[in-house]
């Protein structure tokens, strides 16, 4: 049960952090017909490695939660 809670909290933290980064990058330069995207803004601001780290935290949290769910208890 502890693994499920830990994994869920890690997943939630990583997911919310990625959402905040993507939202902030998407709102920085709003263009209607331009070629800019949130990935371009993230790279312009130098936040791509941080977004990758947050994504890895979210995936690791999901893996830990699934491990805790499917673990057989003696």
Explain how this protein is built.
This protein is mostly helical and 74 residues long. The protein has one domain (2-36, 46-70). It has helices at 2-28, 38-45, 48-70. Helix 1 crosses helix 2 and helix 1 (2-28) packs antiparallel against helix 3 (48-70). The two termini are 14 Å apart. The mean pLDDT is 86.
How are the elements arranged and paired?
Elements: H1 2-28, H2 38-45, H3 48-70
Helix pairs in contact: 1-2, 1-3
Assembly state of the chains shown: single chain
| Beta-strand percentage range | under 5%
- SSE series: HHH
Number of individual domains: 1
How many DSSP H or I helices? Answer: 3
Give the overall pLDDT as a whole number: 86
The count of β-strands is 0
CA radius of gyration: 16 Å
Outline:
With 74 residues, the protein is mostly helical.
Task: Give structural attributes.
mainly alpha; 78% helix; 74 residues; 3 helices; single chain
């Amino acid at each position: 049960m502890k693994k499920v809670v830990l994994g869920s909290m890690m997943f939630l933290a990583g997911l919310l952090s990625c959402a905040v980064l993507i939202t902030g990058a998407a709102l920085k330069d709003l263009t209607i017909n331009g070629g800019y995207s949130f990935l371009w803004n993230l790279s312009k601001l130098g936040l791509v490695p941080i977004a990758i780290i947050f994504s890895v935290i979210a995936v690791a949290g999901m893996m830990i939660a699934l491990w805790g769910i499917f673990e057989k208890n003696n």
